[in-house]
Design brief:
CATH class: Alpha Beta
CATH superfamily: 2,3-Dihydroxybiphenyl 1,2-Dioxygenase, domain 1
Shape: elongated
Largest sheet: 4 strands, mixed
Number of domains: 1
Distance between the termini: 41 Å
Strand content: 35-45%
CATH topology: 2,3-Dihydroxybiphenyl 1,2-Dioxygenase, domain 1
Helix content: 10-25%
Radius of gyration: 17 Å
Oligomer: single chain
Number of helices: 3
CATH architecture: Roll
Structural class: alpha/beta
Number of strands: 8
């Protein structure tokens, strides 16, 4: 799977997702009309940051018109609290701080570059699970 995201400020998005979040660069391409795209390794998927010209070109080629919607993306990290702090220092707006979920992960929510709302999640071990007061 490859997720394609249009970024009005391509350079800021690359600095955030590649440099601050740490997604390794797999490939980068440039085309006519200032079209640029960078493909980042996001683990089991890739996060493709494309500028508006590239996104319009992809939509035109694959669909014949602009149709790509916005969505929320979740990234698994090893330290949700630490990564949340780093990403807010690099331009993300905190929506919700790291919170233990009923499914035993520590999740935070951020408004990030390229118009994405992202979730950072850290899978917790059994010892970190919030005790059930009814047991």
């Amino acid at each position: 799977m490859r997720l394609v995201v249009e970024a009005d400020d391509f350079d800021t998005a690359i600095a955030f997702y590649r440099d601050a979040l740490g997604l390794p660069e797999e490939a980068a391409f440039e085309g006519d009309g200032d079209a640029r795209v960078m493909i980042l390794d996001a683990g089991r998927a890739t996060l493709e940051i494309a500028n508006p010209a590239q996104k319009r070109m992809i939509d035109a080629v694959e669909v014949g018109r602009q149709v790509a919607p916005r969505l929320r993306v979740a990234f698994e990290v090893t330290d949700a609290t630490g990564h949340t702090a780093i990403l807010t220092e690099h331009g993300a707006d905190l929506v919700a701080p790291p919170t233990v979920t009923p499914w035993n992960s520590l999740n935070s929510r951020l408004d990030a570059p390229a118009g994405l709302q992202i979730t950072l999640f850290e899978e917790l071990d059994e010892a970190a699970r919030t005790p059930d007061p009814t047991s």
